[in-house]
């Protein structure tokens, strides 16, 4: 008997999810509700439907029409509008938390207050605002090290950092004013210095099974320079740590993830079922929480799923049936390096409509399609992160070499960060952490 699986979303993250579902020993058919036609996903799925990811009634109708047993939610927007609640009401299993619980990602204020009210480690100093009263005074208190965060989803563009985006308190107040004019809320918090890392965990609301830690690279250009992006690539190590992290640091992050799940259960008397993504930073004062996401990270999902030994669909079913403690979740002791090829001009002014040629790429099993279209049998850039390749090896050096050779063989008006996973970049990160400790 085959089960029908719905994947919601259509980027490289969802391509990775579809590939992992396809590998399952549990017989399945994959259906995709997509925001755009992704040829990589279309090749795997039984059916791909292009619609509006913010239209939960359309997603529900598609799920019912296709007799879906389990849905896996890729991006954050459907979670914010309560797609999980709607599908669960129709007895469809969902990997993705309900709307209340997804506030962990959709509201910065909610998450900071959860950390504070439940005495969970890792919360930076912050203050929430819905008007300008007290903003000037709080900025003066923090000095030149502060971050202003819009309280809601803004596609990664709601966070403004002093020095990078805001050159003075005057500019910061102007940004706060812009938010309040739109009846928005925001937080101002201390700027954290250190090295960032991601820890994602599978959870059924009671149990957590942690994935290997990964480091993403947000900056567009080599040497961690240039504007922020959705992520230019990421790496993980064969020992499931990172070169600048100790086991104690990772255990600290795992403990914070565990405490978050317990706090949510206590607050809502409901189980958070899905992927818990903790965005952390190692500082001179230990591990701190930057943010939480309520779904897989992109590109980090490609690193972890490429080395997952266990059956992904079995894990997903165990999450929804609250039997995660009965399932083995194992990862291979291999290193991974993911590199994104993006259009020239990305992220500020990306070119679109140009052809991409992947015919010289030998192993396409580790290739993931992002923002591209297929027109008359040809792959065409669609303006955002185009495609990603994951090199897998016994060591970081081996994985990086495979990733670099492979992504370089893709032809078209693209660029990628050659330095992700390289010795030079890793040494810079190790030295940065050493200096923090002095």
Q: Biggest sheet, in brief?
A: 6 strands, antiparallel
Determine the number of helices (DSSP H or I, runs of at least 4 residues).
14
Helix content, binned percent: 25-40%
Number of strands: 24
Measured between the Cα atoms of the first and last residue, the distance is 60 Å
Mean pLDDT over the full residue set: 96
Contiguous runs where pLDDT drops below 50 for at least 5 residues:
none
Rg of Cα set: 21 Å
Strand content: 25-35%
Backbone shape: globular
Q: Tell me the structural class.
A: alpha+beta
In brief:
Helix 1 packs parallel to helix 11.
Task: Outline the structure in words.
By secondary structure, the protein is an alpha+beta fold. 33% of the residues lie in helices and 26% in strands. The termini are far apart.
Secondary-structure map:
Elements: E1 3-8, H1 12-22, E2 28-34, H2 39-44, E3 47-50, H3 56-65, E4 70-73, H4 77-80, H5 83-89, E5 93-95, H6 99-106, H7 108-117, E6 126-129, H8 135-142, E7 146-150, E8 159-161, H9 169-181, E9 186-190, E10 195-203, E11 208-210, E12 215-216, E13 219-221, E14 225-228, E15 233-236, H10 247-268, E16 274-283, E17 286-293, H11 300-306, H12 312-320, E18 335-343, E19 355-356, E20 367-369, E21 372-375, E22 378-381, E23 387-393, H13 396-408, E24 414-415, H14 423-437
């Amino acid at each position: 008997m085959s089960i029908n699986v719905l994947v919601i979303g259509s980027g490289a993250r969802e391509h990775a999810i579809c590939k992992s579902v396809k590998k399952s020993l549990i017989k399945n058919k994959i259906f995709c509700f997509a925001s755009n036609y992704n040829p990589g996903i279309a090749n795997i799925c039984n059916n791909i439907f292009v619609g509006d990811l913010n239209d939960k009634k359309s997603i529900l109708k598609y799920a019912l029409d296709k007799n879906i047993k389990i849905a896996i939610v890729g991006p954050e927007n459907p979670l914010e509008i309560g797609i999980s609640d709607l599908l669960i009401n129709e007895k469809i299993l969902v990997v993705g938390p309900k709307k209340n619980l997804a506030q962990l990602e959709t509201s910065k204020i909610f998450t900071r207050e959860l950390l504070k009210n439940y005495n969970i480690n890792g919360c930076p100093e912050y203050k929430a605002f819905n008007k300008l009263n007290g903003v000037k005074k709080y900025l003066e208190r923090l000095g030149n090290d502060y971050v202003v965060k819009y309280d809601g989803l803004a596609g990664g563009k709601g966070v403004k950092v002093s020095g990078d985006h805001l050159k003075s308190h005057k500019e910061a107040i102007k940004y706060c004013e812009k938010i309040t004019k739109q009846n928005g809320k925001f937080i101002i918090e201390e700027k954290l210095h250190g090295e960032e890392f991601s820890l994602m965990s599978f959870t059924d609301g009671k149990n957590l099974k942690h994935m290997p830690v990964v480091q993403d690279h947000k900056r567009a250009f080599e040497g961690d320079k240039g504007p922020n992006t959705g992520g230019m690539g990421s790496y993980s190590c064969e020992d499931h740590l990172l070169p600048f992290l100790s086991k104690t640091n990772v255990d600290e992050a795992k403990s914070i993830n565990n405490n978050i799940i317990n706090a949510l259960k206590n607050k809502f008397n409901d189980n958070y079922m899905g992927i818990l993504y903790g965005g952390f930073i190692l500082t001179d004062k230990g591990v701190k929480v930057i943010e939480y996401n309520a779904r897989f990270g992109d590109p980090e999902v490609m690193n972890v799923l490429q080395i997952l030994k266990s059956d992904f669909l079995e894990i997903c079913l165990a999450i929804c049936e609250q039997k995660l403690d009965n399932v083995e979740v194992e990862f291979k002791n291999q290193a991974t390096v993911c590199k994104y090829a993006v259009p020239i001009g990305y992220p500020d002014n990306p070119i679109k409509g140009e052809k991409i040629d992947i015919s010289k790429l030998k192993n396409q099993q580790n290739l993931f399609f992002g923002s591209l279209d297929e027109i008359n049998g040809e792959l065409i850039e669609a303006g955002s992160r185009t495609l990603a390749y994951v090199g897998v090896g016994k060591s970081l050096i081996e994985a990086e070499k495979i990733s670099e050779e492979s992504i370089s063989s893709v032809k078209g008006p693209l660029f990628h960060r050659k330095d992700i996973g390289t010795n030079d970049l890793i040494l810079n990160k190790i030295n940065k952490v050493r200096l923090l400790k002095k």
